[in-house]
Every structure is written in C-alpha cells, then in structure tokens.
Specification:
Rossmann fold; 2 domains; 10-stranded mixed beta sheet; 10 helices; about 25% helix
Amino acid sequence: MQKVSLYFENGLMLEAKSFGAEGTSVGEIVFNTSLTGYQEIVTDPSYAGQFVTFTMPEIGNVGCNAQDMESKGAHCKGIIVRSYQDRPSNFRCEETLAALLQRENILGITDIDTRFLTKMLRDEGAMMMVASTKTHEQDELKKILESSPRIEEVNYIEQVSTKQSYIHSEARYNTDTFEYNTPDTAKKIIAIDFGIKRNILNELTHAGMEVTVVPNSMSAEEIISKFDAKECDGVFLSNGPGDPLILKEEQEKIKKLIARKVPLFGICLGHQLLSISHGYDTYKLKFGHHGGNHPVKNEMTGTVEITAQNHNYNVPDNITEVATVTHVNLFDNTIEGLKYSDSPTLSVQHHPEASPGPHESAYIFGEFAKML
C-alpha cells in the first residue's frame, strides 16, 4: 500500500493508505451506514461524483463477484474505509475489492478514522474533497480542489446512462439455484436510465413487467408514440447521481409525459424530478441519507418499514398542494413517498429494491404494476 493524501474544503488535511487505483480524484464526501453490501454500493451509479465513507469498519471480507454488480462498472470517485481486508473468504468470491477498484480506476483509502470523518460530516455537512496518491503538498491539493467543478455543477447522468436501449429479463436472485429468475411478464414498460440499478430492474421484472431500458436522451415524443401505439403501458424514472435541479432537459421531458397522462413511477432521482416537473424544486439535505436501516412510515397503512436510502436531495413540504404523502422518514420527517392527484403517478425517495438492505418496501413495485 502507498500513501494517499486527502484535503477537504474545510481546510482539513489527512494522510492514509491506498489499496485501489492510483492518481488524483475530486468529489463530494458522504457516509454510508450499511453493514453489508459494499460491492453493490461501489457499483451503484447514484454515487457518481462522490467519495463514500463506510461506517462499517471492516470492508472487503467477502470479496466481489459478477452477480452482485449493480451496473456494468463502478462510478464513485473513491471509497474510504477504516480497515480493508485483502484476504476475502466467501464461496461466491471471484476477486478482491482492491482488484475491482483498480480495474475501474477508483481510489481505495484505508487506515483512517472513519468515525471522525462521519462526525465531521454530521456537524458540517457533505463537502467536496480531493484525494491523491501522486500529490501530497497541501497547497497543491487545495488548488486542485478549488479549480474543480462542484458536484452540483456536473451532469453525471450523461456519463452513467446507457447509450443503447436493451430489454432486461432477469428478476429476483434465487438462493437455491444461485441464479436470477426469469418470470413471465404481462405488462411492458420503458425505464429511463438516469443511472439505474440492476436490482430495480430485477424487481420490476419480478412484479410482472417486461422492461425496456432506454437512454436518458430518448425524447418524450418517441416515448409517447410508443405509449399511444400500445407498445408500452407506463414509464419508470430511475435513480441517478447529482443535483436534479440542473437536469433541465429531463424536467421538460417528464412534463410532457405528465401532460399526456402516461403512468409514471419514480425512485430517488426519478422521485425528485417528478417534484421539480410539477413546479416544486428540491433542496439539499445537510449530509443526506445513506444506509440500510432508515425507518419510514407508510401513511396509508400506519406501518413502519425499515428501508435502504441513498440521496442528498429532498422534495419540499408544499408538494402536498398537488400530491398525497404516502411515506415519511421517521428520522427527520422528510417526505419519502408521493401519489400525485393530477396523473397516474407515484414515487418514493427510498430504495424499495434495497440491495443492500431490507426488502420491506418491495411491494411498491407491485403497486405500480396494479396501476398499469
């Protein structure tokens, strides 16, 4: 392992050890409280532009494998862990986490006090940082950080979205066969890829929908023509990275789908874009919600679900002027789910597909299927 230097926009300078790729990288630092599923987190496109600090101290224990990839590659700027384990022990392991990071050109940072970093982010909020295995002078790192664009200035959707349409046919993972199921499907939907996770597609298919994944560049007119021709029954708006307010083209596209009364379902970024497209701008949380143990109350049933979360932005409270709140976060009472009154549209801020995390909210995919 070689030395890696970290510089934060609050002026803090730290040194640690590197176990991933070499080089210099700039991004926003956040923390994730999930106890398992580090590979799913690393390969989640929603983390594009971010360094992920794991609060679980031991990372790398079970290695990595192709079946647990949430996308075709890794998209975060780097990961920060207390203790990296380079001798994984699991019968499904195909490679180490370090090998995955090196292949994907992602920084891996270890031997650092992640509890201190987490407390700093809780006190001061998410912030930009730079990490480098090449540059170790504080003044140089500061110059690099100050001259780099902030995460809210970069359209990461263009980097992570698929370039070609494809049909996803896999469903839930079968722990008896160690393969993904391929059930029959009754409905056809289009999923607009803003950085979609594989397990979201699996859950949509499991709920009985044939899913055609399309690039974020596909026009509203083309989607509406497929809907009018009965070639699709609804549209799914995926999760994704970055600030939703800068995605002007996506907002205009969604406005046209809303006006045509196309059935819509959004998760995370899709949830946020639906709010903005209805005229209600999102706002940034202090340090966001990232983890697998967040309690959410279902306002329709009164039950509490433990959910997976990964977002820095939230919809405003006055969205109730056009929608009914279906879910509320019990940590901070922020809105977690909506059903709109002007169109067949529902959305959730949390991740009902989990991966990693609990599966208590997976029924939401069935609700979308029933709505179709």
